């Protein structure tokens, strides 16, 4: 997801002044208490659920909102707060999860990476380095039965998983020299966002990982991992870092997760409707991401962003170098099962063309 270079005041304005309703009906401020489920009460009052996200736009879950509107015929409305905790440090997604768990919001849309810290470590299989390296591969995994098993990993502690959606592809960018082979990472400070897998990968490659918040400055870093949209939206290209054209470190799948008490206010059919809306949104979300990445890439290229491609030998060496990360992930039985399934699922997916500013 692209990041918006806003001030704190502008972010708060966007969060509380702009509200999306999945039903397309009357608006509800994100701070209001959601309406109770009135189905069967003889009234037409819809159920209103609040959804918060640290992202600045709804590209990655817009299809979900549209599906809820269509499938519920307006009986379920979802109000959206953007930029939640967006500029509050590297643990912004963890802060949003705390809000969700405490019942301050009904739903959240955030990266799966935050769950690999302590809540659902098995979801680390989705961001294993160099495994899911294209939008096609991500769509195939999240459309497969394994995705419905993986979303259950977030259940518990006041949280209930709703669905998994494709997210942006994270690429390496290096200061001065690009991050191509494993030797390029050694001794360098690489900015990452909250993820145990990303942290482990950088340490395995001999780099020093430094967690940084969304839209934070990259000054002083020797490199970072980001999606094209964030580099464009935050104008990280102005730091002069060179992107690696043919390396996707991992995706950032989106987890749609609910506060358990909030979702229990819905009847069984409505709960199933939300899950169905998420399953049916996978392909459309992937298409939206492709379109948005192409737009952001054009913006970067217009400003002079440079890319370099890793050689076949460097790619082979990189895959070999991150094997210890897989070994550590595989110590957990469920994570290993997911890793094996995801690996088999993406094995035959063709490699996507490298990103490029040429032509």
Characterise this structure.
This protein is of the alpha/beta class and 359 residues long. Helix content is 36%, strand content 16%. The protein is built from 13 helices and 12 strands. Strands 5, 6, 7, 8, 9, 10 and 12 form a 7-stranded mixed sheet that branches. Helix 2 (62-72) packs across helix 9 (268-279) and helix 4 (135-143) runs antiparallel to helix 10. The longest helix is centred in the C-terminal third of the chain and has 21 residues, at 282-302. It is globular and about 60 Å long. The protein starts with 7 loop residues before the first helix and ends in a 13-residue tail after the last helix. The model is unreliable at 1-20 and 22-42 (pLDDT under 50).
According to DSSP, the number of beta strands is 12
Tell me the strand percentage band. 15-25%
What is the N-to-C succession of helices and strands?
A: HEHEHEHHEEEHEEHEEEHHHEHHH
Low-pLDDT segments: 1-20, 22-42
Which percent range fits the helix content? Answer: 25-40%
> pLDDT average, as an integer?
87
Question: Using only CA atoms, what is the Rg?
Answer: 20 Å
Main structural class? alpha/beta
Question: Tally the helices: what do you get?
Answer: 13
Q: Secondary-structure blueprint of this entry?
A:
Blueprint: H1 8-17, E1 47-52, H2 62-72, E2 76-81, H3 92-102, E3 107-111, H4 135-143, H5 145-150, E4 159-165, E5 169-175, E6 189-192, H6 196-204, E7 208-211, E8 223-226, H7 228-233, E9 241-244, E10 250-251, E11 254-259, H8 260-264, H9 268-279, H10 282-302, E12 307-308, H11 312-321, H12 323-329, H13 333-346
Parallel strand pairs: 1-2, 1-3, 6-7, 6-8, 9-12
Antiparallel strand pairs: 3-11, 4-11, 5-8, 5-9, 5-10
């Amino acid at each position: 997801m692209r990041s918006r270079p806003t001030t704190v005041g502008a972010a708060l304005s966007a969060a509380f002044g702009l509200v999306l309703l999945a039903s397309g009906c009357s608006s509800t401020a994100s701070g209001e208490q959601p309406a109770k489920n009135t189905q069967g009460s003889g009234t037409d009052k819809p159920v209103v659920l609040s959804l918060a996200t640290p992202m600045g736009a709804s590209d990655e879950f817009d299809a979900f909102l549209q599906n809820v509107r269509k499938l519920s015929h307006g009986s379920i409305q979802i109000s959206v707060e953007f930029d939640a905790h967006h500029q509050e440090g590297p643990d912004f997604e963890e802060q949003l999860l705390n809000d969700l768990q405490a019942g301050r919001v009904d739903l959240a849309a955030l990266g799966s990476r935050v769950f690999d810290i302590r809540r659902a470590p098995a979801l680390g299989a989705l961001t294993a380095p160099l495994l899911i390296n294209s939008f096609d591969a991500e769509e195939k995994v999240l459309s497969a039965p394994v995705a419905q098993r993986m979303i259950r990993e977030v259940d518990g502690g006041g949280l209930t998983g709703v669905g998994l959606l494709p997210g942006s592809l994270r690429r390496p960018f290096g200061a001065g020299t690009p991050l191509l082979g494993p030797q390029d990472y050694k001794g360098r400070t690489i900015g990452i966002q909250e993820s145990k897998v990303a942290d482990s990968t950088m340490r395995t490659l001999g780099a020093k990982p430094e967690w940084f918040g969304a839209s934070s400055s990259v000054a002083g870093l020797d490199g970072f991992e980001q999606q094209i949209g964030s580099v464009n939206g935050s104008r990280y290209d102005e730091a002069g870092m060179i992107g690696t054209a043919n390396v996707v470190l991992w995706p950032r799948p989106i987890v749609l997760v609910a506060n358990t008490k909030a979702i229990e206010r819905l009847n069984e059919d409505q709960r199933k409707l939300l899950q169905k809306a998420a399953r049916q949104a996978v392909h459309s979300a992937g298409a939206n991401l492709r379109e948005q990445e192409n737009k952001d890439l054009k913006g970067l290229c217009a400003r002079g962003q440079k890319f370099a491609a890793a050689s076949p030998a460097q790619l082979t060496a990189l895959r070999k170098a991150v094997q210890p990360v897989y070994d550590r992930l595989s110590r957990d039985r469920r994570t290993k099962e997911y890793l094996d399934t995801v690996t088999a699922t993406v094995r035959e997916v063709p490699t996507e063309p490298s990103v490029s500013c040429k032509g």
